[in-house]
Specification:
The chain has about 150 residues and is of the alpha+beta class. The protein has a single domain, classed as Alpha-Beta Plaits (2-Layer Sandwich). It is elongated.
Length: about 150
Amino acid sequence: MEENNNNDNAIDIGSVRVSEEVIAIIAGIAATEVAGVAGMSGGIAGGIAGILGRKNLSKGVKVEVGEKEAIINLYIIVELGYRIPDVAWEIQEKVKKSVEMMTGLDVIEVNIHIQGISKAEQKNNAGDSSHDVPKTPSESGDTYKEVDR
């Protein structure tokens, strides 16, 4: 009995290319959904740039796209009190899964660049994009918060 395999009879009618901007938006949305992420950083120009809101989700994300793979670099601000390695790992997992699921590309690297630390109340104050100098938990009186894996 012969099995009908649609791939053998497929006609090449063109190609699909996902833009770097679309991949950056997918990665930015996935990253900002992780607990402990205060926001995305637009980069460094004479110091740390301000935290960018949800309308600039591709900012703070750099993407390199090949034929079937992508490398993603994210520049983030972490909320004070969260354990940076746990937040970074969660971002890597979530971004990789989201981009691969939505685009079909193989994400070979998700590099996290911590650009600063922000207190939670600063995140909620409109127009306040100042950043605190990182302190140890003993100096600030804060404790680290574990990110669920």
